[in-house]
Amino acid sequence: MKKLPEKSISNHKVFSGFKSLAINLGLIFIGSLIYVIGMNSILIPAKLLSGGVTGIAILLYYLFPGINFGLLYFLLNIPLAIIGWIHVSKRFMIYTVIGIITFSAMASFIALPPPDITDPILSALYSGVVCGAGAGIILRSLGSAGGLDILAVVLNKKYGLRPGTVISLTNILIIGTGAFFHDFEMSLYSIIFVYTSGKVIDAVLTGFNRRKSIMIISDKPEIIAKEILVREDRGVTFFHGTGAYSGRDKKVIFTIMNLVELPKMKELVFNIDPNAFMVINDTLEVLGKRHGKLKVL
User: Fold this and answer.
1) Does residue 40 sit in helix, strand or coil?
2) Residue 249 burial (CB < 10 Å; 0-12/13-18/19+)?
3) Which class for 180: exposed (0-12), middle (13-18), buried (19 or more C-beta within 10 A)?
């Protein structure tokens, strides 16, 4: 095989580095723009609350209307950025600092006319979809736009606390404080926003690539596996197991497929072996082969 010149390899690395930088900055910019539009044009006009540092900034903005929201958000993130710089990777924090500055600047100057929505539930759902999409796009980059994600990562590394638990408890505290100091009813509607935005973030991060993982225990594993390979055109893996009661060795079939294919899979398995045992689980994301690829930047 012909070896590439060192200069060509070096140029390729430089190009890849610029490409990665451009993609990540683009994700942060676009995601911040979408989130800020949803926040300034839907969420805040409806007097709803958010979670995380954004929620703290919004609550303070309601209590002290004269302050600049973007500047307030920036100042609240400074201690978190310092903590992250010490305890989290430097590359992540460099992108995050850029994200904080970008988000703060946009939050200070960008606001579209609010839509004609009077129902607070619709406002919570609409803003949840828009802000969730923006946050998900930001998090698809190698950084973030600041917030409690930094603190959650640090607490997980030092004390083993789950990030989801930390963020959920903090959001409950923020919304509870808003119910006391701001508006009890609107704080309850804000729960809809937090839930909706979280679901949209998950969808954006996983790329709508959720599948069903299936485990099948049967006395006819080879026949079932062959039918899955031929009829369903899906990959199959055998796990080796032993029955605790019978003591017999068994081949456990493992495969992945989407929700549409699931009814056909059930029919296939139980037509071959009515006594088969089938376990079906939701998967957050599946990568590899035809199920999806991880883009390494």
Assistant:
1) helix
2) exposed
3) exposed
Which residue, 138, 117, 103, 141, is CA-closest to 193?
117
| Residue 297 forms part of a structural domain | no
Q: Are residues 98 and 13 in the same domain?
A: yes
279 bridge partner residues:
215
Here the tokens at position 129 are 């979809």
Query: Across the chain, how many H-helices and E-strands are there?
Result: 10, 4
Beta bridge partners of 240: 251
- 13 in a domain, yes or no? yes
* pTM confidence score: 0.72
Is residue 173 located within the same domain as residue 241? no
Helix or strand (DSSP H, E) at 277: strand 277-282
Query: Which tokens go with 247?
Result: 């003591």
Do 180 and 65 lie in a common domain? yes
Of 257, 277, 175, nearest in space to 216 by CA = 277
Count of domains observed in the chain: 2
Give the β-pairing of 277-282 and 249-257. Answer: unpaired
Residue of 117 and 153 predicted with greater confidence = 117
Q: Three-state SS for 128?
A: helix
Buried b (16+ CB within 10 A) or exposed e, 219-229: ebbeebbebbe
Instruction: Measure CA of the first residue to CA of the last residue in the chain; give whole Å.
Output: 26
Question: Which residue range(s) make up the domain with 156?
Answer: 7-206
Tokens of 262: 């699931």
Rg (alpha carbons) of the chain, rounded to whole number:
24
State pLDDT tens for residues 150-179: 777 777 677 766 655 677 778 888 888 888
CB 95 within 8 A of CB 84: no
Are 63 and 162 in contact by the 8 Å Cβ rule? The answer is no
Beta bridge partners of 241: 250
